[in-house]
Amino acid sequence: MNDIQPLSEKLHRQAIQYPPLAAGCPPLSLPAWNRTLNRIQTGRQAIGNCLYGGQTATFWAPQQDLLQITNGPVGCGVYGHANRPQATGPMGLERFSGLNLGTDFQERDVVFGGERKLARAILEADRLFPLHRGMTLLSTCPIALIGDDLDSVARQQRSALGKPVVPVHCAGFRRGDGIGDTHATLTGTWQSWANPSATAGPYDITLLCREMEGAWRGIVRQLEAIGLNVVARWPAGSDRRQIARLGNSRLTIGIDMEYWSKRLQQQSGQSWIEADFRGPNATAASLRAIAARFDERIAQRTEALIESQAPSAIARLATCRDSLAGRLYFSFAPLQPRDIRVFTEAGIRVGSALQGWVDVDGRWRLPERHLRYQDMAPEQVTALLKQAQPDLLDGLAQDGTFWRRHGYAVLDDHARAELNRATIGFAGTERLVRVLQRLFDSPLRQYLPPWKTERNAPPKPKAQD
């Protein structure tokens, strides 16, 4: 099937391919999301996968100078607000991504419609925050169910304000065609905001990467250190000016953004390259691949940077192999080879509930059934954990606290954010080693819970005479 056409017909029909993680690990092909099939197979509907939450936290919230208005119940906006990255600069003056603006949809709005209420909310937001450079209207489930005309309201207010007002149809229950609609909205925004008059310099590049808990800042520093100029970023740390420059540079660098890099190439003709900055070895390889697209000046600066920083970073990461060797990082989400590179370089075994794991004898063990966490009963999860004996769990979403109470170490959101920031480039290796040692080798792991100590153990039966 065509990689990039058409959006609404492709995204919900194709399977997701995951390459082998190690020797003995077969490739994994996850079937496309099928709401009805999932409900039939498991007897219940899977939790999560909210389209509104993904659009809010991943694509639109990182835009620093845009206002995001949630058209729906206030609870949806609070959920999205909790996941929004915080940009730098004064709130309400230079950045607006941390604000939770919503229409507070009520029962009467379901009956009589909420278009007038949305129009008033847009005018009020413009009055309160006049320095914004555009708005996005993020619709939720009730809006799609009652059929409010979001596009009509956006057109009217766009004319009244003289600023962009982008309607995003991202009701949480929508799947394939809904994802296609939201992606078409994004690419349409790229086209309408493009600035073709801007001239690209010889070292201007575009960076496509997600927020990664702020780790994108470390990537920008690495690229600028070898003499490149990041003129546009998306979606991490972006704004309207940078969106206008997305297709106007010498090269696009994609960090786990292959699909969007292809979309940008189709739209602007700009070539792209995939890169990975997690860990010193991957950083060195990516910098050399990027430098090969430019002149000798960039190549020399790249080699000088690698020669000065890479050996010490690699040696520091190798120092923790003895203490961490044999520990198992186990994820309930599918993994890509780039996701596990830092763990394997530190001597840590890796595994996934879908793809299997490295056993203590070095062989690759496969699960009996390839199931996502949302499709597994608690008894199945317990049996799998008993078989794998992991040292650190990941991919449990909101159930992390539940399994932590059962005695398992779980990688929570805060620790994952710190780990993501520490893995970027050469400079973070020292902190990366400390984070890995704390996660896998903390002294707290040596303590027994109260119910396992001898003092609280049940009394032994007395010997009979």
TrEMBL record:
GO terms for molecular function: ATP binding; iron-sulfur cluster binding; metal ion binding; nitrogenase activity. The keyword Iron-sulfur applies. It catalyses: N2 + 8 reduced [2Fe-2S]-[ferredoxin] + 16 ATP + 16 H2O = H2 + 8 oxidized [2Fe-2S]-[ferredoxin] + 2 NH4(+) + 16 ADP + 16 phosphate + 6 H(+). The lineage of its organism: Bacteria, Pseudomonadati, Pseudomonadota, Gammaproteobacteria, Pseudomonadales. Its cofactor is [8Fe-7S] cluster. It is an enzyme of class 1 (oxidoreductase). Its EC number is 1.18.6.1. Keywords: ATP-binding, Iron, Iron-sulfur, Metal-binding, Nitrogen fixation, Nucleotide-binding, Oxidoreductase. It holds the Pfam family Oxidored_nitro. This is nitrogenase. It comes from the Bacteria. Belongs to the NifD/NifK/NifE/NifN family.
